[in-house]
Amino acid sequence: NKPIIYAITPTYARPVQKAELTRLSHVFRLVPNLFWVIVEDADETSALVRNLVNRAMLSQRCVLLNAKTPTNFKLSKRDPHWSKPRGVEQRNEALKWIRKKIKHEPGHSIVYFMDDDNSYSTELFEEMSKIERMRVGVWPVGLVGAMKVEKPIVENDKVVGFNSVWRPERPFPIDMAGFAISSDLFEANPSAQFNYEVEKGYQESEILRQVTTREKLQPIASNQILVWHTRTEASKMDNEIKLGKKGLPPSDEGM
Ligand code: UDP
Ligand code: MN
Is the ipTM of this complex over 0.90? Predict the structure, then answer.
């Protein structure tokens, strides 16, 4: 009997969105104990996302939420992608929803922060299901921190350090894709959440320091890479814009 894994995915409208979410939805179809908490960065939920989860037959184990990033924190096209925190508003909205949900459905479950553009192996969720109550599981992440793999250093089944080179002085120098949290830690720490006023690269440390310590981390799949921090290139839309100027409809109209 596997625990439910609540996977929190912030997502926002852009040309690659449907491709990203289609790829993710097919991972969900293969992993029955995953529950998808999608949080759109928008004033309301969209037909695109709703139709996509319906077509993937995931509506029974999915909730569609929305939480718009305040304009002063929103990345613009000209900002470098790391200059502002991403996903703060959305992940906090999801945590609110999960706290209510687990109050009514007690039992062991797990919370994972799952970006819409990373690459996930279904095996990751097998491993994640081993996370114990009141603990945080950690594992290697591929293609992040300007390395092939960033990973916890494990001795005698304990995390004794991390191999990160970028800002290794962080309390938890790992990527968002590299850990998941037993949901009872969110009940035990009812105010734990993400914050905007946090230095670049410290979002992971921010949430983790509120629910655990390095000594309590549970190493998982220590010798495997089961998730990659891939990033999708923004597609060129020059010809789409030309079509628009001629008064023609967008090329994906009605698809
Ligand atoms: N995201 C969002 N609104 C934004 C930018 C990003 O909801 O304005 C989401 C995005 O879809 C992803 C997560 O936040 O699921 C992390 O963003 P991104 O993948 O761009 O960050 P990176 O991987 O580069 O740190
Ligand atoms: Mn990403």
Answer: yes
